[in-house]
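Hey L., structure's done. Input below.
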Amino acid sequence: MAFSTVEESEYSGEPVQLFEFRYGDDAKAVFRYTDCEDALEVSGKHYKPIPVSRANIVSNGTFDKTTMEVRLSGQTDIGLLYKGYPPAFVVTLTIYSGHLNDMNFIVIWSGIVRGGGPAGHEIVLTCEPISASMKRNGLRRCYQYGCPLVLYGLQCNADKDYATVDAVVASLTAQTVTLVTGWNGAFDVSKFIAGTAEWTNDSNNLEIRTINNVLGDTLNLKGVTRGLHVGQTMQVVLGCNHQESDCMNLHKEKITGFSNIVNFGGDPWIPTDNPTGKSQN
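Output:
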């Protein structure tokens, strides 16, 4: 039976919605829910039944007031991602609509979860459609001293494996982690400032925090140590001040030891003297 036939029927329809959340690029980090009373399997994918609802979808031909709220239990996997600190990766949402007596589901909304906050026992997610990103300006490359490239990104091309050390957690607080002595290997501990601390949380999802400061064996993190435990092994990655000095310390290939300075994106030769501002005697 065609979807439109069931959708327009006054008696035959049994409307059901499917909510598919994706956390980052990991193919396994997908959370699927349905507002149906029973679990559903659609196209080989399993959807867990939970109390979940959404606001009305607004489509007025403009980019104004396009956000939509989704409410669900704060104890779900996706709800726990927003508990105390936002997730480390972008969360996308695709909503499907269909009928139980037809099982032909179509996409009715897709976009990005911009944020989430508690509301009693629920978590309220603020979602924005993909089309809304069309109103934003694209990134511009600036003429500047420092390097604007994303550290360990495709253009930076520094070897992240070379810059990563495995460290064991000795103790921790809400925003600090003390590591077992010797964790830094051959690197100076100060070089890890502005780097990242990474670990797998209780839900087997990757958590990433920026390192604000390093004092001996203690890391001060930008964000909470959610899902991290004493005795757990975490990865600590070198930082970069986006100047020539730090870029030369990073390596493109750890086997050959080539300096990453060939990928430096800044302009250190910008003249500091303004030829039009000099006084004439």
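The helical segments are 3-8, 77-81, 244-249. Residues 164-238 form a domain with the Thrombin, subunit H fold (CATH 2.40.10.190).

-- N.
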